Amino acid sequence: MSQVRRLDSEADFAEALENGKSIRVFKDDQMIEARAVIVRYDDRLIVTQSSVSDIAYHERDACEFYEIRNR
């Protein structure tokens, strides 16, 4: 079973980026991306990649980000 941790701070995003952690992205209470990794972020956008050719740009204010941890 997986544990889920919300990513809020700069340190959270930096850790997820450095360690290549899988994340889930929610917008308007719906999951819009699962098992993606963060490839870049700034104060406005989070860039994720879920496959070789699938790169997505998410507005930081409009979405919620959660790290997936395997037990």
What does this entry look like structurally?
The protein has one helix spanning 10-19; strands spanning 2-7, 22-27, 30-41, 45-51, 54-59, 63-70. The model has no long low-confidence stretch (mean pLDDT 93). The relative contact order is 0.32. The longest helix is centred in the N-terminal third of the chain and has 10 residues, at 10-19. Helices cover 14% and strands 63% of the residues. A hairpin with a 2-residue loop joins β4 and β5 (54-59). With 71 residues, it is mainly β. The chain is globular and about 30 Å long. The chain has one domain (2-70): SH3 type barrels (Roll). The chain has a six-stranded antiparallel sheet.
Quick rundown:
The protein is mainly beta and 71 residues long. The protein has one helix and six strands; from the N terminus they run βαβββββ. 14% of the residues lie in helices and 63% in strands.
Count helical runs: 1
Kindly identify the CATH topology.
Answer: SH3 type barrels
Report the radius of gyration as a whole number of Å.
11 Å
Helix content: 10-25%
The overall pLDDT average reads 93
The largest sheet, given as strand count, sense and whether it forms a barrel, is:
6 strands, antiparallel
CATH domain class name = Mainly Beta
Strand content: over 45%
**Order of helices and strands, N to C?**
EHEEEEE
Q: Structural class of the secondary structure composition? A: mainly beta
Give me the count of strands.
6
What is the correct CATH architecture?
Roll
Output the strand order for the largest sheet: 1-6-2-3-4-5
Task: Give the low-confidence spans.
Answer: none
> Ends: how far apart?
6 Å
